[in-house]
Structures are given as structure tokens and as C-alpha cells.
User: Fold these one by one.
Assistant:
Number 1:
Amino acid sequence: MSWKTLTYFGDSMLLIPTAVIIALVLPWKSDNRQTVWYWVLAFGLAGLVVSVSKILFLGFGIGSARFNFTGFSGHSAMSATLWPVMMWLISGRWSPRWRLFTIGIGYLIPLMVGLSRLVIHAHSKSEVLAGLMLGFTLSTAFLLTQRRTSLKGFSLPQIGVALLVPLLLLSHGRVATTQQFLERFSANLAGLEKPFTRADLFR
């Protein structure tokens, strides 16, 4: 598996449809009617914080040259918010040992995504670390609120259907244009001809 393949596990083109699938499945599989709203809040808050941090830098140059920080790593933050919850949902009726192992994989995937962002030089260490901290905080907070929630089990066909869209997106490999959109939006919002860049941060 290449680093670019690993980094795709944090791409919005994969995560947003998967987050929608989770939101659609939760009312069916959870005995807690509030679970889906907790999920929408957690994932939405991750996206909001990441977007605001990027807009502040791209449009207004607000960042840190000392820490080489231009905003939260979206791949790191969003993957750390989603994958622990996805694995918790899938393993809802498994034995405690297998469930713990599966949720652990959900925490490992974002770590690998964060590492891939460093290897391909997409982010600085501070941006990846901040993104992971944000995402893990939100996913862990979600899971803590669901300690008494009972989940219905998934049959193998149901797991296949739930993973169908993510697997198709992975095989297609098309990446989201979120960064380009934020660059245009931030520049227009701030009245700039072009957004701030990392090179501008060190000038």
C-alpha cells in the first residue's frame, strides 16, 4: 500500500459519503435516538474547525511561523473523527475482545493517514498533530457518550452494503477539491488576488 493510498483514507471525497452512511445507519442500528445527532455534531464540528483554521490563514495570513502552522490537517482531523466511530458501529455486537481490537484499528488508521501527510510533504508536524488531537478528541467524546448505547449487529451482507460506497471511492481514487475551494473562498472573502501561502508565512 502506497503513502498516497493511505492518505486517501483521510480524503473528503471518501470521508463525507462515509459519514453520511454512518448517519443513515445509526437510527436503524442504535437504540439511542440521540446517537445520530451526536455523530452529526462531532463530524460537523471537525469540518468546521478545520475549515475556519484554513480560512484564517489563506485569507488573512493568521498562522505560526514558529510552529510552521497554517491550519489543522483536514485529512488527519476528519479521519481521526470518523474511523474510530465507523469501527465502533460495525463491531457493535462482537465479543469485547474483537470489538476492542476493531476500534483500535479505527484509531490506527488516522495515525497512518497523519504519517502519510508528512511523508508526502502535505503538512507540517504541528498541523498533523493538531489535526489528530482534534479528531481523536471528538471521536473519543462521541464514543464516551455512547457507553450505554446498544447496537444491533451487522450481517456480512449488511457490512458489504455499508462498505460498498467507500470501497468504490477507494478504487476510483478521485480526490476532493476542498483545498482549492477554500483557497478561492478565502481570497474572495479577504479581497485578495490570491491566498496566502506557506512561503508568505516565513517572510
Note: The CA atoms of residues 90 and 158 lie 10 Å apart.
Number 2:
Amino acid sequence: MAVQINPSILSADFARLAEEAKAVEGADWLHVDVMDNHFVPNLTLGVPVVESLARATDTPLDCHLMIEDPDRWAPQYVEAGASSVTFHVEAAAAPVRLAREIRAKGARASMALKPATPIEPYEDLLPELDMVLIMTVEPGFGGQAFLDIMLPKIRRTRELIGKHGLNLWLQVDGGVSASTIERCAEAGADVFVAGSAVYGADDPAEAVRALRQSAETATAQASWACTH
């Protein structure tokens, strides 16, 4: 399983997004947090900014929709240029139909779970997805402290992926840093969203490289990776 690092532009300078995107061109994806001030208590950016970012960078966009009614809005983010679109299962009325629509439009479909949402009720949905996002903070704001109590949930999700023999990415988002990424990798994550750990560094590109190296080292020693 290849480690992937996704810097979150939520922690970038919104007045310089094109430059901030270029500062992390060694990253695998650029993580774009979309918030509507309804599903979460914060308001960020929407379709027009995603369209502009898609033109400004060759790094593929990973859009995380923390919004109400993703069934209606998610397909528009694919049309805007997102290569991966994540919807929250807590907000989706028809998650299977939505995942299939996202895929049909040419993007990867991902399902996100808040910290209090268990993975087990959604086991049967996993084959419809390309990625599962386990939130390791409460969604809504960047810079929060990592929730260690999410590590068992990451492990259970990795076990379910293995149980069904799926080629499914497992993403973590929230408080991912040099001090937490190894624990996430050991638990089973292989895609890591990092905001302030990247954009708060003096050299964002070097921060991406350092995070990748830490995650790769932990993954190489993880029991779950040794079975693949």
C-alpha cells in the first residue's frame, strides 16, 4: 500500500491559493475542505474556488464536502475539476447512489465518518467506494488536537477492508502531524490529510517529504501491511 500525503488548503493563505498549491507540488493530492456553516459550524469555499484551483495546479484535488445535501451538490464538484469527492455518510440520503454517480462522472468516491459514527453499519457500502475517511477530530475547524480514541476505529476499518479483499484507501484527517502520523499508519491508514503540519512549516514541501517518510517507515513495520 503506497502512502499518500494530502496537504489541506484550509491551513493555507486563502489570498494566495495558487502559490500555496505550487508550494506542495510533491504531494499526492491537494485536500480541499468545503464547509457550508450548516453541517459544520464554519464556512469556507465552494465550486468557483475549486474550478480556479483545478486550473492553477496539476496536483489532483481531493474535495471533502462537510455540507448538507451532498446528494445534490457533490456531482458539481466533479464537474468543477475534483478528482476525488468525499461526502459525509451522516448527511447523505442515498450514499450508494451518490457514490455511483460520483464514479460515473469520472472521480473517486469517498465516504467520511465523524468521530462518533461507527464504521460497522456501513460495511456493506464499502465495495461501492474508493476511499473511506475517518475523521480524527470533529469536522469544522483546522488546527485541532488529534483524537487518539479514533485509532481503534481506524484498525476496525482496515480489518473490514481486508475482510472483503478491497483495494480501498483509508484516509485520516484531523491533527495529523509528525507526532501522530506514525500511529495512524500503524493502525491502518494509508492516506493522510495534513493542514497546519504542512502549511505552518517554514518549508511546506519538506514537511510533506518528512511526513511521507515517517508514514512509510511505520507502514513497513505494521502488521496489517505485512499481510498485503
Note: The chain is about 35% helix and 20% strand.
